[in-house]
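Internal tracking record. Fields below are filled automatically when a chain is submitted to the structure queue. Please do not edit lines marked as system-generated. If the sequence contains nonstandard residues, flag them in the REMARKS field before resubmitting.
Queue: standard
Priority: normal
Entity type: single polypeptide chain
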Amino acid sequence: MKYHLITLGCQMNISDSERVSSVLEGMGYERTDNEEDANLLGILACSVRQKPIDKVYNKIAQWNRWKNKRNLITFVSGCLLPADKEKFLKTFDLIFPMSELGQFPDMISEYGVVTPAGLKSREPIMPKNEHIAAMWHIKPKYQSTYEAFVPIQNGCDKFCTFCAVPYTRGREVSRPSEEILDEVQHLVAQGYKSITLLGQNVNSYGLDKKGEEITFAELLRQIGEYGKSSDQEFWIYFTSPHPQDMNREVIEVISAYDCLAKQVHLPMQSGDERVLIKMNRRHSMEKYRRIVNDIRELIPQATLFTDIIVGFTGEGETEFQNTVTAFEEFKFNMAYIAMYSPRPGAASFRWEDEVSANDKKDRLHRLSEVLKSCSLEYNESLKGQIVRVLVNGTDRKTGFSTGLTEGKINVRLDRNDATLMGKIVNVKITSAVPLSISGEVVNI
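SYSTEM-GENERATED OUTPUT FOLLOWS
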């Protein structure tokens, strides 16, 4: 028996997929990259944007046509809005929340049975997270031998008006710190080099269990102390924090330990105060600026990443220019820029989507050009330096090895060497372009 699993959306879905694979392989299923060879076909979907949901509809239509020729079971889970779940009930054989992953073997054995939670999902209410701990107890089937994702929290309490996450994953629930520390230590002992702590709002970790759980800063500190006593070189990342909960203590901890990667992903979403209020972001530009100033002061070598939405309801040219000005001020190394699209369930879905598609595309292009300029300035400063690089792939055009610096800058190496895969090596930077650098492997 073989299974094929498609994962859409963010790193949290990727992490969840590793636990789905673990459950299926524990049942005797073998993973295949060729969906035509599979008896069990599944998708971890993402309702946060329309494009991934469109992919789900296209794929299940194809799979259901295959059922005319052979026996198949199809399933869907992941980050789903109630409206999408209701539609999928009519097209997939099985639909379940990740909190019921432990019951998945029984669902498959009783093929065609829709779970109680799936039926309840017809109601437009927020999902509950009280059973998410059971999913965390499932040991993941890691997709890599050197890069791993470790969930530390699930859900979000912020209710940004553009975002559907509180309605797809529910309210914030923190994973026990003992489990997180055990998983990190296990991964390091196995030789993993890059470990990312995951959550919708990682720096509010522990706030749902005040007095029972440590803070995010303390969690990082304990990981840092473990790294300090370890003889292994590894980098710890986290995503995504929210500026409202980000504080100087977290930045101080990152600066104090070598294993805590000097890279910060800090979503800004907009550089305009009025748009931030309409987004219900709960942070001002002055608050954001203080955080960036703390990063520049305490970790001057750190790279800075962000998330941006262009064309949000109410964003005119003046508001957009304020975002451009913020980009020029903060000099982001990378920005994930998205054109606004209304999502059912999010508060802004009720508002008029008043920025035209052409204006959104134009703003995305213009902001991308500013990003390239900021990126090139930083990358040029690395020329002639020797930096540590985690080798993690191969360039499709040149066939040479590729990797990431500690600050997650893309690097093209001067050779194709499969023996370097998954290792951290010294690279002398020889050239730079926007968003990437190139260099030669050197021995010191």
